[in-house]
Write a sequence for this structure.
């Protein structure tokens, strides 16, 4: 089976944009993913498989047995080892433990795009001292990725404390009126401090990619 | 002209609920308001006229010339002098200058319902030191009213710092994706710190009333 | 396993805010919850585990076997016994039987935060006599928590009857156009009687916490 | 000028449906309305002009000088005198004074469709005694039209008290989170008492028409 | 087990409103339903159990073995036989086969509230001849219940053809942009023909109840 | 003044796509429109100016005095005379008189793109006979443009009667719950008859353009 | 079992509209589908069964064993062979592999309605060269169907490149803020190039049908 | 008059975050702005006044007569001369002329924060050649700001062509279903190419600020 009729991979994306190809797995059949993985293997294109679901993992790993699978982040990276880091530091903050999978997806993505990355968890604004305790890290970073659900308030607070840009990722964590992350998304778009770049709900991959571009050498 | 056929005032509300009557002026004609004001005067019921628009003010003041008109808060209070304060302290915080009219409506309402009240302005989370500078006031208060538009992040931060309940008032201040205060409203409902009581968008009257009840003796 | 890298518990929250720590379980893995429960046990911090799902209960109880698990309210309380009650009475009203799990979560939370609490069920506005029959309880309470889905009309009716503040909790109970509790939420935010404090949809924990703060001694 | 190319009046609607023609004026030019009014006059078709704006009134009255113009209800009725009433009684309740224009449009429409009609104002659920004082009227009616903005709670309460159907009209009266009447609309659709028929926001005409059909002999 | 603490049945609803009690089953546990069914049996109150899910049926039928269970309509009626019909005819139209469960719930409810009822299926506006073929039935009815998903266009067409009121029930049937019935709901609220009474999405019970009230003798 | 820095007209659009250039006037200053009109005149590119507001008309006509201004459709056409018609017939239906401006914009656009066009008004589904009276026209057309607000039901009915494709244009005409045309838009997207192509709310230009493409020779 | 009481098939739709009947399977029971399939077989009406779910397939195939089942497109076609193609070419573009099921449903529908059809996959705007590589096909087509989720940007780009009309199908593919296809739907309705006809989310059948009508001989 | 009680300026923001103070003028009275402007003058803090409305301009310029007022961008800059540029190049693209005011606000902000900036207009995706003609500029930039209304498709296309991050600004330009910029906002959040940072609707200031941070030396 080949990818003909199901996908047209963008193998020269690395040269055109400077970053690996990414395959968004949601909605693809295992057979389609196997064909894509085989082509990735044959062409040698560095690739991230994002949003991998349990039933899809085997199909990819069968073709790319050395690939690195990160279950919590739902990510498969090939090759498994990230390149040596260049550019500025990426700091990733998760407001709560429930935001951790998305934060890990962001951190892994930035790492595989060639950045040094530090991840800190459980620094919600309900306990400001936890944020303030991290000021040193925040001010060393070239870009700060902030992952938060519920009220989405953390990016505003962080952006007010640093001069680096903040990449804000709303998550779908929360009670009913979070409406699947809408509340956090709107809060982040309305951040009262300038310097907040918003990406899609639960889109750790997009946040990590953007952070890597911002902190590029 | 009488109020027959246009309104049925709740003169015993004071005895039943313990607080003055309120007349919501939006959508009422000047003639209707004049009739209501005349009845208020004749019955001697303490009353707040809320959301008064310029064309309505004269109609009310013609019948109640001693009433106190607060233009920025769009409020007319009768009698103009609030009662002597009892109960706990009400602190009112406005995140930005643009939130001031709503914050003043809240503070005036709480004052006319018999509470001591302190109002502080421009303490948005983008400058955390401004919030932290007010910790003494925040911790003296029996209830804190927080008025904020845009990201609505301030109530979460305040609620994390005090043990008193926080009454959060979203305002319609902000860029397009605030959607008339929806963003701040949702953020406040999703506050990551417990202890946040949310009222309607721009509803300073409701916030002041609720705060007065919470801090009742 | 420790909580390092997955959570940073706020053990001094009791001293800072005066109430127990809470762990929001949704989205956390059993392993993460086990680590958190172990730390709670070791540090002796009174803690409520909220929104516990069946697959998570064992992980927590394995570390805290004496903890009190309330299945309908999806709550684990540690220690299992609430403190002796102080402050004012908290009345909790559930509009219908389907609202009972959220109402129980609110009542348990208020109890574990140190308040006396009475819970009444099935007092919807479609049978006003049921509400009016409870006037004595309603007027004895320092704060009334009202839990309702569908039209969310009960808080308006109750707030018109008492001088105490009302904490309104919308639930996701209802036909299609309740939109997961949005209808009740909006109705409560627009309550025509002042004195209604709204919290998030199905957020019994938040309502109980707020009620405990309002009725604090 | 004729109506050719701008409107095709439904003169036999009276025979087909049994009720007068209605002309929705919003968005029509004065010239178009004049042509329509002239045709109404020439054909003698009983007609209601709804949602008339100030700049349109003269155009209609110039052709139909005897027509009855009701400014608050934004309605022009021709002929001005309603038919002698038949069928059951229509009770119209307005929750607040600000809902009065819509309630009057409903009452006038029902009257011009041939029903006896009684209008009561300011019976919001925040003062239940006002509703209960009207029980006699409510139980005499064949149908009750309830007009309410804000929380839209009144139809639920009324429907729980009577065996007649309730026609609920949400109005756009309220603070920001009423979202132009959406809150009241959703509450009414989710009324916890059965027997509530909902019409469009501020649509007094539609409510009066429906009530007249329900109470037809 | 009794209903104490879980429900307060409204046994005199029949005398107060003239119709049987209804128990909304969604969100109730089998044990709660069993207790309610036992009380219904002991008190002899005619009752409809609506929105019954498979796991709940046995609990009810164990206490009320003679009750009539209608699987497609998710309804249990007790007693199983409806009363002899009085009042006017109720016509129920389902736009498509997929709308049939809701239409059957409406028809069964009206029947158990004492009305004669005729049900017609698959009369969508895409085949107008199917509607026009039913004109005789439509014009004999005292009220027409129209059940439709997707574009919700059928009530407008029917209301334009008859002088009786139309009860419109939107269903959640349709492609993505039906948004769970929102599209049909809005269309029905905006029906261009007057005389359309809208109820909640998929709420066949509410439609049948309203129709029975409208066509009461 | 030139268009440099404010617009880059697409003069070869005629050759690339086969249709005239269009200038969307909303949000442009009179000075900008004058510069654009001057360039249109100098280059001789056939152009439609859409959504022209009163204050903008003079600026365009000063540079293109021969242009044809259609006030109700808010359209300026240059050259004023449409080309000789080719291709199939375009039928345009307006459900109500209030939908006429949008319908005229559609008809004028199709005409200036080279099609024969017939416009019929006031054929709403509330009076089906008006639609059925036009069956001959509808079945002669190569494409039918249907313009409707409120319930947006007309496209479903028309699409069920003809084999030609239907271009549906929702308008913002209607009561509150039309939400600016959203109700009609959703209804049209959910049309129960296949063959309905939906364009933006009030977008007569887009509908006319699409119809001209569909009926191209 | 017959279709009486569950469906009224439109067997003369072929003569009236010129295209086969379609049966929307969502929400129908296997027994209902079996009865419909039997009637289709007996009457010999060409029919498409759309949105078939796994549990429904056997019921249809038991009655129509020769029918063609396309699992990925969730479509059963009877007769299985499409008619010989007439009219213009239909090009179908899928922006990504995840959009393929909807694209196949569109292509199969157009084919069974008698058109020649070419399907191209993975031509998203993030790699413009993939679109530009297909210019030859795009300009040969009489109509282009564009299937895209996420940002829904492809129809705008394609419409700017061709003179044929574009049928745009939003899909529910994407991260949280796609809101089930709403983002793509709105983008397509707001396409900055004219000539874009939008259908419902994931509605490949509707798109294929519309394309077949547009490209009819 | 002083700013006491109306605003608390953040004069050390420059030192803390490295960029000038900004005053959001919407909702402030001329008197408040005058007091703020006077304090700015007295303290010498570089400041941008954003969203200035006509009635506010004089109040600011009276205190800061040398300030630079940019009417189209609704911006007042003090001091009027930007600092000498450092860091990377900022490219600003406006999809249409109607997006120009927001694009100018972005460009001016970036310039006053110390960046070199180039602005290009009318490069919508409906004419891809206009985008492709600018590839040289796009690839020289350290960050690209893309301002677009309607379908919001341009950021996806640009992000697919460059390796620099893209700051996407949705504007409220468009027909009804743009819903005040919501359509463009959602499209940008769902951009199918990674590397897109979204800011609030019409928020040129925020975009320019973010771009300046990203391209900082």
């Amino acid at each position: 089976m080949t990818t003909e009729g199901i996908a047209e991979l963008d193998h020269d994306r690395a040269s055109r944009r400077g970053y690996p190809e990414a395959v968004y797995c949601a909605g693809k059949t295992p057979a389609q993913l196997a064909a894509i993985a085989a082509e990735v293997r044959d062409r040698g294109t560095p690739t991230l498989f994002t949003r991998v679901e349990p039933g899809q993992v085997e199909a990819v790993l069968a073709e790319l047995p050395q690939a690195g699978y990160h279950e919590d982040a739902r990510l498969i990276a090939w090759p498994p080892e990230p390149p040596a880091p260049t550019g500025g530091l990426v700091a990733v903050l998760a407001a709560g433990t429930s935001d951790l999978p998305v934060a890990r997806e962001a951190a892994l993505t930035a790492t595989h795009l060639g950045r040094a990355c530090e991840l800190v968890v459980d620094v919600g604004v309900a306990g400001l001292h936890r944020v303030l305790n991290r000021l040193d890290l925040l001010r060393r970073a070239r870009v700060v990725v902030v992952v938060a659900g519920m009220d989405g308030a953390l990016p505003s607070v962080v952006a007010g404390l640093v001069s680096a840009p903040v990449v804000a990722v709303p998550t779908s964590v929360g009670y009913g009126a979070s409406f699947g992350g809408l509340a956090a998304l709107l809060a982040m778009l309305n951040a009262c401090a300038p310097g907040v770049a918003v990406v899609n709900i639960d889109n750790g991959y997009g946040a990590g990619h953007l952070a890597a571009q911002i902190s590029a050498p």
Remarks:
- Chain C has nine helices and nine strands.
- The two ends of chain C are 40 Å apart (CA to CA).
- The domain at 90-214 of chain C is CATH 3.40.50.1970 (Rossmann fold).
- The CA atoms of residues 113 and 213 of chain C lie 9 Å apart.
